[in-house]
Specification:
Rossmann fold, 7 strands, about 160 residues, binds flavin mononucleotide, 5 helices, alpha/beta
Length: about 160
């Protein structure tokens, strides 16, 4: 789901690793929240972590990151994304807002920590509590992801 921003719009870049139907449900809930009809002036770009580039990051005004927990860390795909963009984007993105969601089977703590360290290095500003979901995806999980997407989008809209 990619939108071309019109003049005056702000861009929310969603960078995600979505390896399965349950994680797809979470992504869709995040995007639905970011597209909440009450939020105006925000173009949402959703890009898989393995396809997201330095220009994508530089052109955005805020970020949502989504990943599975893998071996107590973020997914290799999201790690590859950060490896790719970190130094080229350092300084350029300081202060921009972000949010994070993580899905795992039973323990997402290490994955969250791994992202937290990198976004701290980039000096991004966390504007919504990280959403951690373990196990099955139910309505409550989808709702939390919706709120996450909406909160970061509203932050951008209020710019
Ligand atoms: C190689 C591998 C490592 C994983 N490591 C973790 C982990 O450290 N913690 C955790 O909670 N889940 C872990 N998982 C589970 C994934 O996070 C989970 O499969 C993913 O979020 C997709 O969810 P689903 O399997 O319910 O579709 C791992 C899965 C794989 C394939």
């Amino acid at each position: 789901m990619t939108e071309v921003p019109v003049v005056g719009e702000r861009t929310l870049l969603v960078v995600h690793h979505t390896p399965s139907p349950p994680t797809r449900e979470l992504l869709e809930a995040v995007l639905a929240g970011a597209h909440d009809p009450d939020i105006e002036g925000v173009a949402v770009r959703s890009v898989p972590a393995l396809g997201a580039t330095v220009p994508d990051v530089l052109a955005a005004d805020g970020y949502l990151f989504g990943t599975s927990a893998n071996f107590g860390y973020m997914s290799g795909a999201l790690k590859h994304f950060f490896d790719t963009v970190y130094y080229p984007c350092l300084d350029a993105v300081a202060g921009r807002p972000f949010g994070l969601w993580v899905h795992g089977n039973n323990d997402t703590a290490g994955a969250v920590r791994s992202v937290d360290k990198i976004v701290a290095g980039l000096a991004l500003t966390q504007v919504a509590q990280t959403v951690e979901i373990t196990g099955g995806v139910d309505a409550a999980a989808r709702e939390r992801c919706y709120e996450l997407g909406a909160t970061v989008a509203v932050t951008l809209a209020e710019g």
